Amino acid sequence: MPFIQIHMVEGRSVEQKREIAAAVTADVSRIAKVPPDRVKIYFFDIKKEDMASGGVLRADEH
User: Fold this and answer.
1) Continuous segment of H or E residues that includes residue 18
2) Which sequence positions are flagged as catalytic?
């Protein structure tokens, strides 16, 4: 059973997450040759102040 974690900066709508879940499930199911109901996806919303790139917080980017 594949377990997939998706970490994204917060702000995506429930509809966007539904679309991502459907697309990722379809591809993983096909490639891993498992039924779609065996693919588990976990979304983690990350606050902009809890993520940095190149030493700069996402909250500080313009």
Assistant:
1) helix 14-32
2) 2
Place of tokens 């199911």: 29
Sole residue written with tokens 């709508």: 13
Tens of pLDDT along 10-26? 999 999 999 999 999 99
State how far the Cα of 11 lies from the Cα of 20, in Å rounded to an integer. 14
Q: Could you tell me the two tokens for 2?
A: 């594949």
pTM score of the predicted model: 0.86
Amino acid at 36: P
Q: How is residue 20 written in tokens?
A: 């991502």
Residues comprising the chain, all counted = 62
